[in-house]
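USER: Study each token:
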Amino acid sequence: MIEIHCQKDELLKGVQLVQSAISPRSTLPVLANILFEADGEGLRLSSTDLEVGVRCQVKADVKSAGSLTIPARPLSEFLRTLDDGRDVSLKSADGQKIEIKSGRDRCSLACLPKDDYPVLPEFNMERAVSLNAALLREMIRKTIFAVSTDETRYVLNGVDLVIEKGKMVLVATDGRRLAFVERETTDKKATVGAIIPTKAVNELARVLGADEKAGDLQMAFTDNQVTFKHKNVIIISRLIEGNFPNYEQVIPKGHDIQLRLKAKQVLAATQRAAVGTLERGGSVRYSLTDSTLQISASAQGRVEVESELEVAYKGEPFAIAFNPVYLIDALNALETDEIFLEFSTPLNPGVVRPVGDDHYKYVVMPMQAN
């Protein structure tokens, strides 16, 4: 027996929060469900795909305590059709079916028992590290797009997080580009090193991004897991085993050419030039002559696009080519007015840096110009 009364808005918010951790490709039927646990402290929702788990607390009036698992998709879709502000009741007499009622609207769903559901570990506050949530959200935004999606390069399928000596570093790379950001932390004694999977980082960013007053979050590690706790939400994830590449060897130590540019102008010109590549994977050419940066692309004589920007450059003509997607991803994420573009030779990596931020670097390998 389980009976719960709550607000539709609160319940739907909680359901949608944990639903994102559910994998549509799971072969275990119970993993398509959300675990509902009701007791004297309220209602707790949990979900997992066995790699990442999300848990949150929902305000509820628990008339009868109990636990069961409810199919996530039909529950979410039914709740979404209800008007905001409505009261919702959930009641199950036998644990095999649950009736969700709101006014004269009703939905009955077949359930599975809690015993079939994987056990998610509890959050252990001992040795937890406290982090500024807004700061971590910014660091994730500026690195996550560079993570590799190639599953054969498992160690690159996540973000490398290092905390030591009062500094926190996040690094992501797919082998063709690398995003590095470093910020100071309030906890000067913490020492952490781990590769956190992309899905867990995206879940964390989503939770933090939905909160205007983010405050602090707690992060704790066990041998092969990381747990993040932010207000009423907990995210649990396995860590990626292995050694992250030595990224310091990849970041250029100097440059021969440095251009100071308006980020929006470079972004717009790169997006226009990308039209000239016709297909994903084509290159955009960045050509320098006195006082002019030309950003252009062409494809098999069928299309040519070029834009010119005025720059403070005096020197020999220079040209380098990049995958435009790599530049666009970074410029969209940086949210800065001005950037530095730094080059040495057409065969060496280029670097993008926000003006006024010496602790962010985005390194991009060049391509052969079309």
Notes: The chain has a mean pLDDT of 92. The chain has three domains: 2-116, 129-247, 251-364. The chain is about 20% helix and 40% strand. The helical segments are 8-19, 72-81, 133-141, 198-209, 263-274, 324-334.
